Amino acid sequence: MKITRNEILPSVKGPEDWFTGSVRIDPLYQKEEKTKGAGSLVTFEPSARTAWHTHPAGQTIIILSGLGWVQKENGIIETVRAGDVVYFEPNEKHWHGASPTKAMSHIAIQEEVNGEVVTWMEKVSDEQYNK
Fold this sequence. Notes:
eight-stranded antiparallel β-sheet, Jelly Rolls
Protein backbone atom coordinates (compact mmCIF):
# COMPACT_ATOMS: atom_id res chain seq x y z
CA MET A 1 0.00 0.00 0.00
CA LYS A 2 1.12 3.54 -0.72
CA ILE A 3 -0.42 6.73 0.63
CA THR A 4 0.49 9.92 -1.18
CA ARG A 5 0.06 12.80 1.21
CA ASN A 6 -1.72 15.82 -0.15
CA GLU A 7 1.02 18.26 0.80
CA ILE A 8 3.78 16.57 -1.23
CA LEU A 9 2.12 17.25 -4.60
CA PRO A 10 1.87 21.05 -4.89
CA SER A 11 -0.64 22.87 -7.08
CA VAL A 12 0.78 24.25 -10.31
CA LYS A 13 -0.42 26.89 -12.75
CA GLY A 14 -1.47 25.46 -16.11
CA PRO A 15 1.30 26.25 -18.63
CA GLU A 16 0.40 29.02 -21.11
CA ASP A 17 1.44 26.80 -24.04
CA TRP A 18 -1.25 24.27 -23.11
CA PHE A 19 -4.05 26.46 -21.75
CA THR A 20 -5.92 29.69 -22.34
CA GLY A 21 -6.99 31.53 -19.19
CA SER A 22 -6.49 30.70 -15.54
CA VAL A 23 -6.02 26.97 -14.88
CA ARG A 24 -4.75 25.18 -11.76
CA ILE A 25 -3.49 21.58 -11.81
CA ASP A 26 -3.43 19.53 -8.61
CA PRO A 27 -1.67 16.20 -9.22
CA LEU A 28 -3.54 13.29 -7.59
CA TYR A 29 -1.41 10.30 -8.53
CA GLN A 30 1.54 9.65 -10.79
CA LYS A 31 2.60 6.72 -12.91
CA GLU A 32 4.24 3.98 -10.87
CA GLU A 33 6.85 1.47 -12.00
CA LYS A 34 4.17 -1.15 -12.77
CA THR A 35 1.41 1.16 -14.00
CA LYS A 36 0.85 3.45 -16.96
CA GLY A 37 -1.78 5.87 -15.64
CA ALA A 38 -1.82 9.21 -13.86
CA GLY A 39 -4.55 11.54 -12.66
CA SER A 40 -4.93 15.20 -11.77
CA LEU A 41 -7.61 17.55 -10.56
CA VAL A 42 -7.82 20.42 -13.03
CA THR A 43 -9.71 23.63 -12.25
CA PHE A 44 -10.62 26.08 -15.02
CA GLU A 45 -11.82 29.61 -14.26
CA PRO A 46 -14.60 30.95 -16.55
CA SER A 47 -13.57 30.84 -20.25
CA ALA A 48 -10.33 28.95 -19.45
CA ARG A 49 -9.65 25.92 -21.63
CA THR A 50 -7.05 23.51 -22.92
CA ALA A 51 -5.40 23.77 -26.31
CA TRP A 52 -6.36 21.14 -28.87
CA HIS A 53 -4.62 17.88 -27.96
CA THR A 54 -4.65 14.07 -28.26
CA HIS A 55 -3.77 11.18 -25.96
CA PRO A 56 -2.33 7.94 -27.38
CA ALA A 57 -4.40 5.79 -24.97
CA GLY A 58 -7.37 8.15 -24.76
CA GLN A 59 -8.43 10.25 -21.79
CA THR A 60 -11.22 10.14 -19.25
CA ILE A 61 -12.41 13.27 -17.48
CA ILE A 62 -14.82 13.19 -14.54
CA ILE A 63 -16.61 16.49 -14.01
CA LEU A 64 -16.67 17.36 -10.30
CA SER A 65 -18.14 20.85 -10.20
CA GLY A 66 -19.25 23.78 -12.27
CA LEU A 67 -20.20 23.97 -15.91
CA GLY A 68 -17.83 22.97 -18.68
CA TRP A 69 -17.55 22.55 -22.40
CA VAL A 70 -15.91 19.72 -24.36
CA GLN A 71 -15.42 19.29 -28.08
CA LYS A 72 -13.85 16.76 -30.41
CA GLU A 73 -12.51 17.83 -33.78
CA ASN A 74 -15.35 18.45 -36.25
CA GLY A 75 -17.89 17.91 -33.47
CA ILE A 76 -20.20 20.28 -31.66
CA ILE A 77 -19.39 21.85 -28.31
CA GLU A 78 -21.06 19.76 -25.59
CA THR A 79 -22.00 21.10 -22.14
CA VAL A 80 -20.87 18.99 -19.17
CA ARG A 81 -21.88 19.19 -15.50
CA ALA A 82 -20.92 17.63 -12.17
CA GLY A 83 -21.25 13.84 -12.35
CA ASP A 84 -20.71 13.63 -16.13
CA VAL A 85 -17.87 11.41 -17.37
CA VAL A 86 -16.30 12.04 -20.78
CA TYR A 87 -14.08 9.55 -22.60
CA PHE A 88 -11.97 10.75 -25.51
CA GLU A 89 -10.84 7.96 -27.85
CA PRO A 90 -7.11 7.32 -28.43
CA ASN A 91 -5.66 10.02 -30.69
CA GLU A 92 -9.00 11.88 -30.85
CA LYS A 93 -8.23 15.59 -31.22
CA HIS A 94 -10.20 17.49 -28.57
CA TRP A 95 -10.29 20.28 -25.99
CA HIS A 96 -12.14 20.89 -22.70
CA GLY A 97 -12.62 23.73 -20.28
CA ALA A 98 -15.00 25.99 -18.41
CA SER A 99 -18.07 27.74 -19.79
CA PRO A 100 -17.84 31.51 -20.31
CA THR A 101 -19.59 32.36 -17.02
CA LYS A 102 -18.89 29.49 -14.63
CA ALA A 103 -15.72 27.69 -13.51
CA MET A 104 -15.35 23.91 -13.93
CA SER A 105 -13.23 21.27 -12.16
CA HIS A 106 -12.57 17.76 -13.40
CA ILE A 107 -10.35 14.81 -12.69
CA ALA A 108 -8.25 13.96 -15.76
CA ILE A 109 -7.02 10.38 -16.16
CA GLN A 110 -4.68 9.25 -18.91
CA GLU A 111 -2.16 6.49 -19.61
CA GLU A 112 1.13 6.53 -21.43
CA VAL A 113 1.97 4.58 -24.57
CA ASN A 114 5.64 4.20 -25.44
CA GLY A 115 6.52 6.98 -23.01
CA GLU A 116 3.98 9.42 -24.50
CA VAL A 117 0.94 10.76 -22.63
CA VAL A 118 -0.28 13.78 -24.61
CA THR A 119 0.42 15.66 -27.82
CA TRP A 120 -0.35 19.37 -27.50
CA MET A 121 -1.44 21.28 -30.60
CA GLU A 122 -2.70 24.76 -31.44
CA LYS A 123 -4.76 26.78 -28.99
CA VAL A 124 -8.54 26.91 -29.29
CA SER A 125 -9.24 30.34 -30.75
CA ASP A 126 -11.81 32.69 -29.26
CA GLU A 127 -13.82 32.23 -32.47
CA GLN A 128 -13.83 28.43 -32.08
CA TYR A 129 -14.66 28.71 -28.37
CA ASN A 130 -17.51 31.18 -28.86
CA LYS A 131 -19.34 29.16 -31.54
